[in-house]
Amino acid sequence: MTRHICLHGAESTGKSTLAPRLAARLGGVVVPEYGRIYSEAHGTDFDAADLLAIFEGHVAATEAALAAKPAWLVSDTDPLMTQAWAIMLLGRRLPRIDAWDAVADLYLVPAMDLAWEEDGTRLFGSDLARRQFMDVAIGELDRRGLAWAWVEGEGDARLENALAAIGAAGLG
Fold it and tell me: pTM of the full predicted structure?
């Protein structure tokens, strides 16, 4: 049985850096952030159709990774983050994403304790917007009653805190 960990939360909190490091320590595989792949190819002026394409990309990439039956799967975000984007950008939820239920065993939410870094795909860089986005993202987890934990620190400390959270959740 594959244990599934998902990194979730506001932009520029180190999710894409932490995902491969966490997978390497766990002996697992990474599902990259499909939203980043999509926005690099199509831009960030998203409408509902774009967000649904991102949703479908997340689902397809995760299903492909799970087909190999890895012991651990680490997702660099998932459709719940796409729903957070819908709320932030469109002011509404997307029903197809609300119907999705292939959630992770544990969501790790990196704290906003790292400096903001612009990379051409990020939209919510002000402190206020970043906090609002984090609140929306956590709201998606809480709305579904999903298990999640904060991850703080820089570099190796962030990785060790993530591993400790996985252990505390009984998954390690």
Answer: 0.92
